[in-house]
Amino acid sequence: MRKEELRTPCYIVQKANLIRNLEELAHIRKQTGCKILLAQKAFSMYSLYPLIGQYLDGTAASGLYEARLGAEEMGKENHVYAPAFREDEMEEILKYSDHIVFNSFHQLQKYQEQVKKAGGSIGIRINPECSTQEGHAIYDPCAPGSRLGVTIENFRPDLLEYVDGFHFHTLCEQNSDDLKKTLEAVEEKFGVWMHQMKWINFGGGHHITRPDYDKETLIECILHVKEIYGVEVYLEPGEAVALNAGSLVTSVLETGENRIRLAILDTSAACHMPDVLEMPYRPPLKDSGLPEEKMYTYRLGGPTCLAGDIIGDYSFDHPLKEGERLEFLDMAIYSMVKNNTFNGMRLPSIAVEEEDGNITLVRKFGYDDFKMRL
Questions:
Q1: Which of 208, 227, 242 is the last residue before a domain boundary?
Q2: Domain check: are 279 and 217 in the same one?
Q3: pLDDT, tens digit, for every residue of 319-371?
Q4: Would you tell me the crossing angle of helices 15-32 and 215-229 to the nearest 10 degrees?
Q5: What are the tens digits of pLDDT across the range 34-51?
Q6: Of 223, 242, 261, which one is at a domain's C-terminal end?
Q7: What residue numbers bound the domain in which 344 lies?
Q8: Is there a contact between 353 and 14 (Cβ–Cβ < 8 Å)?
């Protein structure tokens, strides 16, 4: 099938771009000897896990279901972290996971015997209280009052007997200069105990496959920690794996005007690209420009009843027409994993674009997918 044959809306993952990202990550692995995990919270398209598993070391999960998915569909290393675990799920989590990261020493004390009995490796998430976010406080785990990770004030060296590793995750779509700054804070506060560890996990948020990313500084940080502390180093990027490797194809349902030109699409920001409203950000759109940059500027919105279901203002070389197709870019990450059926919206289909341009439809959704969630 070709792209124009797809029923919209539809997510399309470009396999060639995905492989390009995976090759860049594999290069980091080769240069440093570190291990890299897919953070499934950003990209869980498991039909591509066999391909991803050829390049990466395994998966990182945020709870039971992601842990099971990683174990069943990739079957390599499987690390699980949650702010708090449920007692009635821990036994099953341990069936699927080899590394368990706790958010507090209370959780560590509660489950350490169970994890060790199952043969798992235990980690503790630390909070270096080093904020490097600019303008996105919702994604800052180091903000005052954060519930994520143990601060130095609450650290318990007396309970490290069972701990194999430290995990810190402070970044979001950031370059390696912020990692270097964070690592300096981690070493200043927790370095004395890092010598006791078997592994250190740098978490996610590393935009490694972005064109301007400073890979040399990342490599230096990894090699520094390996050399000084004699530990295994893990990275668990999510966005970097599928960055710029997917699109969302949509159709224009209606055009109108209310002081500005309006276009209603069959794609909803609230339902199909919720990060547009949550971040917020303006997603790239193929063959469009900034407002007023081209002749015809439109405000693009979804078909739901939410007044704020607005994707953004874009300009075009021609007037938009009913039935015309538009293609939003960089739509593989945090889209499929976060979409919803508010207003009874149909979920977009999922497809893969092969390297020769042919399209394989992986999944399509209908009424039953809406109803089963209610």
A1: 242
A2: no
A3: 999 999 999 999 999 999 999 999 999 999 999 999 999 999 999 999 999 99
A4: 40
A5: 999 999 999 999 999 999
A6: 242
A7: 3-11+246-331+339-371
A8: yes
